[in-house]
Amino acid sequence: MKSSPSPEKTILIVGASRGLGLGLAREYLARGWRVIATVRLDRERLIACAGSELLSKLEIETLDTTLPAQIAALRERLAGRQIDVLVVNAGVMSRHDEKIGEISEQDFNWVMVTNALSPMRIVEEFSGLVPESGAIVVMSSAMGSITRNTTGGAEVYRASKAALNTLMRSFASRQTKPRTLLAMHPGWVRTEMGSDRAPLDVETSVRGMVKVIDAEAGKPGMRFVNYKGETVEW
Known about the structure:
Elements: E1 10-14, H1 19-30, E2 34-39, H2 44-54, E3 58-62, H3 68-77, E4 85-88, H4 105-126, E5 135-139, H5 155-173, E6 180-185, H6 202-216, E7 221-226
Parallel strand pairs: 1-2, 1-4, 2-3, 4-5, 5-6, 6-7
Helix pairs in contact: 1-2, 1-6, 3-4, 4-5
């Protein structure tokens, strides 16, 4: 007797036009998932990564994560859908040598809103679409670890990721049903944000993260982990 095929799974990747988000979209498409990927402007790289054979499994949505009205509109468009994995990847980097006393209030607000407030708005809006067997993942960084911050540098970026981690912990404490919540450190990766000096390529980071998400999905609780599944100190 033939077993029935497994139901198609769906991932929502917020921030998928380049770098890690694009790599995640490519990997999940190759695994046979339906991928809903958001971009602000550039759709071409996503379309190219799917190719003609996988394009039917790719849905591209336009989203500026800093605009609450666009987040709400996307949530309305996806009402009734099951999102097995939610990954919030969108983020920006501050200058590495910029000290907190030197940054303008406008730039400080831009980094904090983009990296901490906006991801949490998305988590709050879309968490109801993620089943208990799924996972909610925010792209954090080891630079958000207070324990590991012994060198300084990129002070506002560090603060934004520490804030994201704290807000995810607060979100976790309010859950009334078991949830898998991950703050993910992808490693130092060669992307436009990570620079060419980074030791890790996108494919290695992405495959590691997907393996961790697969292993953790359905396990209740909040974890701060890297792409190898190792715990990162808060």
